[in-house]
Amino acid sequence: MPRVQYPSPFVITADHYGSDLIYQDLTSSCNGSRTVFTVSEEYRENSLYIFFNGLLQRLGQEVTQDAANSQFSLSFTPTSNDTLVAIFQPKDLPLAPQ
Fold it and tell me: pTM for the complete prediction?
């Protein structure tokens, strides 16, 4: 089997049935006043993982998702010294057959 070169270790492709995850660094959007953030594309509901300064934040606790608008909100306000990373599964990927 030939090796596949990925542009980022965070783009994980195991098959063609929805296993792709997208990594997006949102650190530059942290400004001390913003609590709502937008990712690059619509994501599948409950597939969003938010890491604040390297720590996973909980959906329904620190993170409220708005998948239809490609957004999420935080229950706190990150400053410019913080890091914020989103990892999610795009909505348009096919699901694995049952």
Answer: 0.76
